[in-house]
Amino acid sequence: MNIFNNVDTWKRERHSWQGTATSLGFVPTMGALHEGHISLIKQSQKENYKTLVSIFLNPTQFDKNDDFNNYPRSFEKDLSLLNELGVNYLFYPSYDELYQDNYRYSCRENELSKILCGANRTGHFDGVLTVVMKLLNIAEADRAYFGEKDYQQYLLIREMAQSFFLKTNIVSCPLIREKDGLALSSRNLRLSSAGRKKAPAFYRILSSTLSLKEIKKELIRVGFKVEYVEEFNNRRFGAVHLENVRLIDNVPHK
Ligand code: AMP
What we know:
Elements: E1 2-4, H1 7-16, E2 24-29, H2 35-47, E3 50-55, H3 65-70, H4 75-85, E4 89-91, H5 95-98, H6 124-139, E5 143-147, H7 151-163, E6 169-173, H8 193-198, H9 201-206, H10 212-222, E7 225-232, E8 235-242, E9 245-252
Parallel strand pairs: 1-4, 2-3, 2-5, 3-4, 5-6
Antiparallel strand pairs: 7-8, 8-9
Adenosine monophosphate binds next to helix 2 and strand 5.
């Protein structure tokens, strides 16, 4: 696997085979890779000739320093996983490389980004959209892959790509769960073993036939701190906190 830290070096490689039939799939991540990320990478490999993965823990999308500082990092393990999977390229930039403007410029959406995960996390989706816009412009991929684990994020990115006439096709991939129903997330690594045992109740309760009010009550009774549980676009979305770890999930809902 070829590793790039630098935008210009990657662009030279990208342009050396641009215009040929070689298609490129792109999977942006924040590292601490798990089966959820792997499913996106495999889908990209199935649909494209080459696959580029990025690892960048994006500080501008964290509203709390604590969450950023405690976010799991496992670069060496990620590297060997990407090599095993046969990924062609890794983009692994520094903050200064990606934010040469030191975040003077940003992308913002004014409706969907203000509800659900955006309601209590000021600037979160500005950070997400800005870094994804940068990465999509750098990658120049034919397709970019995003997980339905972060469904609101996927919708915002898809609509941003349409609004700015980006050339990359935005592809959504199914949410991958543990056998017990817990949505895979890098943050799960921060749960204690007792917390890890309790966490699957979030999905169980969210996907039950209870009303929104009853769901909130039940989540609190079981021991979660509820940030929100809401319905939007025939889906039920939720965010809870357990042992200071933030968990999100969403399920289809008629
Ligand atoms: P992250 O590293 O958390 O920024 O995630 C990178 C990409 O992987 C995003 O498009 C996520 O939606 C996706 N992803 C993370 N967890 C899962 C999961 N459990 N199932 C499917 N996709 C996921």
